[in-house]
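Hi C.,

You asked whether I'd gotten around to modeling the 272-residue construct. I have! Everything is below, sequence then structure, no commentary in between.
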Amino acid sequence: MSAHPLSGAFMDAQPFNPANFDPALANPTVADQPLTYRPAPRRAGMPGGDANAVIRQHLPLVRRIAWHVHGSMSSMIEVEDLVQVGLVALVEAAASFEERGVEFGHYLKSRLRGAMIDELRRQATTTRGAMRRRRQYHEAVTALSQTAGQPPADEAVADKLGVTVERLRTDYKTAEAVRMEAIDDVYSDDLPWFADDTPNAFEQLAESDLRDALIAAISALPEREAMVIQLYYVEELNLEEIGQVLGVGAARVCQIKSAAHARLKKALASQR
């Protein structure tokens, strides 16, 4: 037998020319058949044969694992959201499962838990360290409450965790996740968080019109009445001081001020 058995196998081969290639000559049975699409054959490892039946069979498992993950890891996401994530993972697992020495149930549990934990990580608003401290804090509070029959003091919790009271208050009690809620569920006109200090546009317009009318009415006052209004409201002088400026008594200043008020009220009433 030759040491190079394939050395002469392609002695008579001709260069390939795509223009002269005929699929019918290469594989006449394939070339004569029309192009069709058929469903992919069922994977040999799919338990039960029918993927839909497998999905229906494992629906309770999805909800059970969702409740377990929700109770043990995070309450910042609704259980139904975890169920939806689990349903997607169930469908994907049923479509991609292959028998390789692992039962479908064990494979599915891993896929469901992994998908839900990934979703929690995507929505997490705190670091892993903060989540761990929060869990340790709640475990310590629960244990001490069961022992003493009442909520423990910060000193007792800090002693159980082996930290100072200051660190307990800064790193443990405040390690709460930010909760996202729909604005429609929490909005209220009476709450101070939604209060607006910006003046109302109609009020601003009314005040602007009233100010212009008041300026015009003061400008139309007699000179002495306008001076009294200026000294009393702008310069903030009392009646005695105004009387000294005008050379009259306080009683006369009060009469002038009353006459000015009457003129202003009449002028403003005509503007409405």
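If it helps when you're writing up: DSSP finds 14 helices and no strands in the chain.

Thanks,
B.
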